[in-house]
Amino acid sequence: MSVRKRTWTNPKGVEKEAWVVDYFDAAGKRRLKTFTKKKDADAFAATAKVEIREGVHVADSASATIEEAGKLWLASARAAGLERATIMDYERHLRIHIVPFLGASKLPGLSIAKIRAFEDQLREADKSTAMIKKVLVSLGTLIADAQERGLVARNVVRDMKGRRGSGEKRQEKRQRGRLKIGVDIPARDEVKALIGAISGRWRPLFLTAAFCGLRASELRGLRWQDIDFEKGRIRVHQRADRFNDIGRPKSHASERTVPAPPMVCNALREWRLACPKKDTGKVDDAGQKIMELDLVFPNGQGKIEQLNNILRRGLHPAWITAGVAVNTGEVDEKGKPVLASKYTGLHCLRHFFASWCINRKEDGGLGLTPKIVQERMGHSTIALTMDRYSHLFPKDDDADEMAAAERAFLA
């Protein structure tokens, strides 16, 4: 491998120069790569030498652009059977954010500096911090797919994420991620007021959300056969996505069995008698439609209920009836203030379930350990559970208790 200077005169008579890295790849094929500056050529030569020795080097001419790799990545996602919502997000990130800025770039030409510049471009385009993070995750997944295809040697996005941020910054991020009672998590009195305000089809749904911790998609996909009334258990085995497609839960950890308190079981038993049945499209010998009881929380036709209907028709009015609302600053035709639900999503009841599990001592029970809370929530890692809820766990190790433990140990 050599680094040499090349000079030439262009048609206009102007003398030009560049630095060329002349080398043979792992297959023995001669490669040339040109740089404007010698330091860039030296840096490439040093990196390429190591990559060739390890058998992972990919020349630019043997690689692909980000746009080309993106098409292969989406094809892989479809072949893997990923959910339609996930593939649509990938397509949107690629089309709107990645291709306009990086589409023509060759994969081996990406560097941490280029990725940082890409982040800056997204910020200048008024993209939110959350969106930038999602786009970078998609870009990292795209490059990982290209790695498996032998189109690039390293994943600069994941290298960058691994090096970025000190321990203090990570700790600060964790502190920001912690949820607050009364802001993100409904307080106990607020949930009690909600229970008193709900009735009809919404009562079993919101009780199950608050005291079993199921996600909205899991509630919408819950089947009667997944409820064991005798043992008081609910098995989370499937979910309904935003397109109303039924599929597997969010992750392997999401497939779980959670206990259902008597209040939930009683509400579900009553609801089962009135629950709409799904039309199978068949008829019996008498010509009557054959109806099949399937989903626990369907719409009026026994089909999958839309999430926005649950929120708009059920949860938000219930919060307002319960007195858990905020003033929007607007007034109606009669001059009265317009109120809106304080908690906008169904996920707040899932957060309440986590806090209730952690602090059940207040109800005369035993607070659950972090590991059990993780399993009940269906979190993939305990780090996720602790980042959000660790501050809610009771702190019993005060000075008096430690002194008593010390005396018992020394006795």
From TrEMBL:
- InterPro entries tied to this protein: CB (IPR044068), DNA_brk_join_enz (IPR011010), Integrase-like_cat_sf (IPR013762), Integrase_catalytic (IPR002104), Integrase_recombinase_N (IPR010998), Tyrosine_recombinase_XerCD (IPR050090)
Keywords from UniProt, A to Z, are:
DNA integration, DNA recombination, DNA-binding
Domain Tyr recombinase, residue spans: 181-403
Among the GO molecular function terms of this UniProt record, one is: DNA binding
**Any one GO biological process:** DNA integration
Q: Which Gene3D superfamilies match?
A: 1.10.150.130, Intergrase catalytic core
- The answer to whether the entry has keyword Metal-binding is no
Core-binding (CB) domain span: 64-147
Q: Give the UniProt family note.
A: Belongs to the 'phage' integrase family.
PANTHER family attached to this UniProt entry: PHAGE INTEGRASE-RELATED, PROPHAGE INTEGRASE INTD-RELATED
Q: What is this protein called?
A: Tyrosine recombinase xerD
Which organism's genome codes for this protein? Sinorhizobium fredii (strain HH103)
Give the gene that encodes this protein. int9
